[in-house]
Input
Amino acid sequence: MKKEMLHKKNENLANMCEGRARMLEDQFKASMNHVRALTALLTTFHLGKQPSAINQETFATYTERTAFERPLMSGVAYAERVLHGNRALFESTHGWHIKEMFSKKRQQDMDEYAPTTMSQKTVFYLTSLDMMSGQEDRENIIRARESGKGALTNPFRLLESKHLGIVFTFAVYSIDLPEDATKEDRIKATAGYLGGAFDVETLVENLLRQMAGSQIIAVNVYDITNVTMPLVMYGHTNVEKSENTYVSELDFGDPDRKHEMRCRLKEDQ
Ligand code: WA2
Output
């Protein structure tokens, strides 16, 4: 009898964990697919038109109207690739200086910059900041433009909100590249970067709270890209793997990163 109850309990934990993992994965993928679709919009109406048919106002309106398509993202923005030789012209055209992300001071001379030129209202504070001046954003930009695929950062504290989250980046190219384009081809054709923040601390929290059984289950999400150093992405207490822990694999669509969800029943802690 006891054995049977334990079996039922474990089965229940497994079902609740898998349900949460699949829900989270679906909402992540939906959000990322929509950012990918936005890159096509920018290629067509920003880069493909002289003069551009998209400015800050249009971008802000469109991204606000489609925010429901990106349920786990707090906002999206577009940063332009600016080479040092074009900096002066870029700054005089926009009427502002490219700024360093943290000090908000004029960025010092670099080979290239990635200043945000258009943003959803919720992340308007990114405007004019050089996204290459933050380590996580910079690594993501470089990986995204060399691969042509979406890239995810480590979990880190986002600007302004200071919530724990991860940033997603897609490169926008000025020409249609063949599937087998080299890294160098890709870098040369890069016009800018479209990306946004998954505010994990707030939006994943909301999602999980709404699911049945949230009172009895404790959920943590980890970035386990480096298996010897799992990074907490979501969750309050550290869930060490034990016999009471159920682990669901997560695939957020970036093959260079690995994530997992660890669940246990609160009564077992
Ligand atoms: N978006 C929102 N909050 C952030 C952040 C970010 N990056 N970085 C730190 N806090 C414009 O890769 C291009 C968005 C980055 C895209």
Q: What stands out?
A: The chain has a mean pLDDT of 95. Residues 2-47 form the longest helix (46 residues). The first strand starts at residue 73 and ends at 80. The CA atoms of residues 85 and 111 lie 8 Å apart.
